[in-house]
Amino acid sequence: MGELLGALGLAWPRLLLYPGGIFALGASWLLARWLRWCTGQPPLSLPPLTLSDRINVLPPLIVLTLLPLAPAANFPYGIDLVVAVSLLEWPQLCATNQPPPERGALVRRYGLLILAGLGMLEGAGSMTLSDLVMWPTAWPARVLLLGGAGLWLAALPRLLADPATQRPAGQCRALGLLLLGTLPLSGALTAWANAALPTTLTGWLIPPIAYLGAALVLGGVLRLRQAKA
Predict the structure, then answer these.
(1) Which terminus, N or C, of the chain has the lesser number of Cβ atoms within 10 Å?
(2) Which residues have C-beta within 8 Å of that of residue 84, sequence separation ≥ 6?
(3) Opening angle at CA 198, ends 193 and 200, nearest 5
(4) What is d(CA 39, CA 47) in angstroms, rounded to the nearest whole number?
(5) Cα distances (angstroms) measured from residue 63 to each of 95, 102, 175
(6) Phi-psi region of 52 (alpha: psi -120 to 50; beta: other; left: phi over 0)
(7) In the predicted model, is pLDDT for residue 224 greater than 90?
(8) Cis ω for the linkage preceding 19 (within 30 of 0)
(9) How far is CA 68 from the centre of its chain?
(10) How far is it, in rounded angstroms, from Cα 30 to Cα 88?
(11) What is the pTM of this model?
């Protein structure tokens, strides 16, 4: 842990600018506003931040800071998908004052996300997040990776339909879950774009295209669900 904190101190642009810091807080706020607008609800009038709010935002911010998103500087440490999801779900666990949910409720809530994660991990051949961005050469692995990413994004409307998403920690959680699902998409788009564009240019263009596109699709799905309700 000491080595990780020391490495974060040396990689201060990741911590303060991108993919953590200013980017994480700003993008998570914009995503929360966008999703709430897509559901036809006005912005919530939230009470002032409490000490618990400030503490609960740290685990999702750690995940966002460690995400392997270009063009952030290389980082010697990474986390796997299980740890990332556990840290992202920390605010959700702290915001729940109800008894532990039944097994059936957990399956309905996380079943599709677990299936999607297994597909992505099988396609990448590793649990590490940095391997989710690597585009495999074998077609079965590509299908598993992209199929898992599609299922992951399809699972988000259920997971993000919660008032706690409007709190700062919940906003960062929502952004983290969205970005995890776009990692394989970024890898695929980068592999295809490298044949036509310089590597440095794809690093600046592809990640924003991937997560902006995913956010627009997610908002569109929520809009359709709201219209049918």
Answers:
(1) N
(2) 63, 66, 129, 176, 180
(3) 105
(4) 22
(5) 19, 28, 10
(6) alpha
(7) no
(8) yes
(9) 11
(10) 18
(11) 0.91
CA–CA dist 129, 184 (Å, integer): 10
**Which of 80, 82, 58 is CA-nearest to residue 67?**
80
Q: Over the stretch 1-18, which tens digit does the pLDDT of each residue have?
A: 566 666 666 678 888 999
Q: What's the token pair of residue 19?
A: 């993919």
| H/E segment holding residue 217 | helix 199-228
Q: Is the pLDDT of residue 213 over 90?
A: yes
pLDDT level of residue 95 (50, 70, 90 thresholds): low
CB 28 within 8 A of CB 175: yes
Residues 6+ apart with CB under 8 A from 93: none
Give the model's pLDDT for residue 75: 81
- Cα 44 to chain centroid, rounded: 22
Dist. CA 217–CA 3, nearest whole Å: 39
Q: Within its chain, how far is the Cα of 76 from the centroid?
A: 20
Residue 138's Cβ-side half-sphere holds a number of Cα atoms within 13 Å equal to 8
For residue 73, what are its two tokens? 């500087």
List residues bridging with 25 in a β-sheet.
Answer: none
pLDDT of residue 114: 94
Residue 36 pLDDT: 87
Higher confidence at residue 157 or residue 12?
A: 157
Q: Are 84 and 180 in contact (CB under 8 A)?
A: yes
* Residue whose token pair is 């394989």: 184
Length of the chain: 229
Both structure tokens of 103 = 């097994």
